[in-house]
Task: inverse folding
């Protein structure tokens, strides 16, 4: 009986095999590599990339040329003789007002402004977002609404009141006053990002920690922080980019000896004295943008992950 069943199953399989062969392969049809859709998508990406990379290419090539070669007029041609003298002059010799010490002083001023501003604003905003997402307290919705409204108030509207407040505090014209300004203005958007990110984490982890007797700071330090690397990278990149590239606050709330790098760059590029040295201007511009570009390229993948997790939840 078993042999008969086996023989019948073999016959059935042999009979079904031609049907499968004649029916052809199943599944989705493979896409062509050079389809019309791919040509449009990749063609658009290439055009956009060239649009943004071409000015950067011109800046780099110009910064490596001497002035006699620049006066020839071919801005797209690579340098015949590479020279780093414009970079040296932009860093240590270019005049940024009364001082002719280049961008070096402004660079260290920007570092002294950016590092504490980023650390303080991210620390406070992460705690705010954690409290708003996991610890419901009286007035939480009102507090969050005020923060969000603050994110959309134009900076220019707040300049004069902030000047008055900083003057009364005795920190107007100092690096401390500028650090306070950057910390406050970075708080709303960072709090929103952290709140949305923490709200997207599994709620069971928070409840289990509460059952085990963990308190506010224990849960934050031992559970939330180890899981929040992507959103911290996003916050760091946003703050570093915004603070390092800031010009308005730097020129309004500090004195010349405390000017950040962007203000000194403006003084170099827009100087009306002497010969216009385009190679030095290009080198100074590249030096000013080097820090945020480096940070983004190092942590770009985490930035994409974090912005996707922290911007669409909540």
Result:
């Amino acid at each position: 009986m078993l042999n008969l069943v086996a023989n019948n199953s073999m016959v059935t399989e042999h009979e079904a095999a031609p049907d499968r062969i004649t029916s052809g392969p199943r599944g989705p049809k493979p896409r062509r590599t050079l389809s019309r859709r791919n040509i449009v998508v990749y063609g658009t990406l290439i055009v956009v990339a060239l649009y943004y990379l071409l000015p950067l290419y011109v800046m780099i090539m110009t910064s490596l040329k001497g002035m006699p070669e620049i006066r020839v007029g071919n801005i797209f041609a690579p340098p015949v003789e590479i020279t780093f003298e414009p970079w040296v002059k932009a860093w240590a010799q270019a005049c940024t007002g009364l001082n002719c010490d280049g961008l070096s002083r402004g660079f260290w001023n920007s570092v002294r402004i950016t590092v504490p501003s980023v650390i303080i604003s991210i620390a406070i905003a992460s705690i705010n977002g954690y409290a708003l997402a996991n610890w419901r307290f009286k007035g939480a919705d009102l507090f969050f609404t005020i923060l969000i409204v603050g994110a959309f108030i134009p900076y220019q509207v707040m300049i004069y009141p902030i000047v008055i407040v900083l003057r009364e505090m005795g920190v107007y014209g100092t690096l401390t006053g500028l650090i306070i300004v950057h910390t406050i203005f970075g708080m709303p958007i960072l709090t929103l990002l952290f709140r949305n990110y923490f709200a997207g984490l599994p709620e069971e982890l928070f409840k289990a920690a509460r059952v085990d007797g963990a308190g506010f700071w224990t849960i934050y330090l031992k559970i939330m922080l180890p899981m929040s690397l992507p959103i911290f990278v996003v916050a760091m990149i946003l703050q570093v980019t915004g603070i390092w590239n800031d010009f308005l606050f730097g020129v309004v709330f500090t004195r010349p000896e405390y000017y950040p790098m962007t203000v000194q760059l403006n003084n170099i590029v827009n100087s009306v004295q002497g010969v216009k040295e385009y190679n030095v201007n290009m080198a100074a511009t590249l030096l000013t943008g080097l820090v945020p570009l480096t940070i983004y390229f190092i942590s770009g993948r985490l930035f994409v992950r974090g912005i996707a997790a922290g911007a669409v939840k909540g």
